[in-house]
Design a protein that fits this description.
The chain is an alpha+beta fold and 70 residues long. The chain is built from 1 helix and 3 strands; from the N terminus they run E-E-H-E. It has one domain. The protein has a 3-stranded antiparallel β-sheet with strand order 2-1-3, with helices on one face. The longest helix has 10 residues.
Amino acid sequence: MHSLNTKAHLLWFVQQDDELLIGVYETDDDPKNAIVRLKSKPDFIDFPQGFEIHSYELGKDHWTEGFIRD
């Protein structure tokens, strides 16, 4: 029986005011493997600390506070 994954793992690259969503992955290891593949590419190689992994539970609201417009 196939177990349902309850999390999505997002890989971001953040450098100053730029945020790039690299990908959305199924397992904990998938974004780590993507970092290994990408860290030697142009521009990524200069900022290896720019990679961030954020995991989110599926089927759940993650922003519940509302928002304020400037």
